[in-house]
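Run: sequence + 3-phosphoglyceric acid -> complex structure.
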Amino acid sequence: MKVLVATEKPFSAKAVDGIRSRIEAAGHTFALLEKYTSPEELRAAAADANALIVRSDIVDKALFDAAPELKIVVRAGAGYDNIDLKAATAAGAVVENTPGQNANAVAELVIGMAIMAARNKYSGATGFEISGKRIGLQAFGQVSRHVAALAKGFGMAVSAIDPYCPAQAMADMGVNTAESLEALYAGNDIVSIHIPATSETVGSIGRDLIGRMPKGAILINTARKEVINEAELAEILADRPDLKYFADVKPGNAAELTERFADRVFFTPKKSGAQTAEANLNAGLAAADQIVAFFRDGTDRFRVN
Ligand code: 3PG
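>> structure
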């Protein structure tokens, strides 16, 4: 079988070598496309591929049409909103993700952003310490759980809300369950967003929620830009000169926000949460192993379609 790793944002060389050796050791053929610049390039590379490993790369109907031999696509990472699941199913392809493999890397970035915001981007202006402050986690999946553990190490009070997670799982980690989403935003000095982008969540965080945050609060988004109502974010940042927005998922109106609120917003130039040697290796090798297992005996434990 031909396994193509197609990553516009490449994995580390060590991760690529590891993927290659696992694929080849199982008797498959390895192919690599990195830093490609157009969907056409991806479609051409995938034309005869039987399996595909991607990151945030767009895998749409046009790609499935151009790659009729594809049996499995593994998103080496957590969020799979970049993959058209309907088109995959119609094409008879299995889609999987690698949950948890890059969670610690993203969580460390959340804490890094919290400190960077609390210290006013290291400008020298008096900031505050995160120890003793309250952090609220919107959703309590793998990234959130790592954030919770790290935040507790910093002496923060941690609360969370997640309709899909029992309160006991939070209690087991010493995390309080917020009474409502509104209460989460109103009751925390820092809120960190960890919801996926779905039809229910897109545009769901706007003036109403952000406006409830206490004075001097910081909103951190390492999840997806689509969950923010960007026009309302701009409005509330204008109305509330005490609020900050730090994101690893650059908003559509980043230029405007940076121009208007330079001291209070920060966006990574390229999504960097999962961009560590460790996360690349964890997610890349997991993706390779999942493909090998799938072709060996049909194992599809992490299937999402
Ligand atoms: C994920 O969903 O796993 C993260 O957003 C990381 O995405 P990336 O692989 O494109 O860095």
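>> summary
The pocket of 3-phosphoglyceric acid is lined by residues 9, 55-56, 77-79, 102, 271, 273-275 (CB under 6 Å). The longest strand covers residues 2-7.
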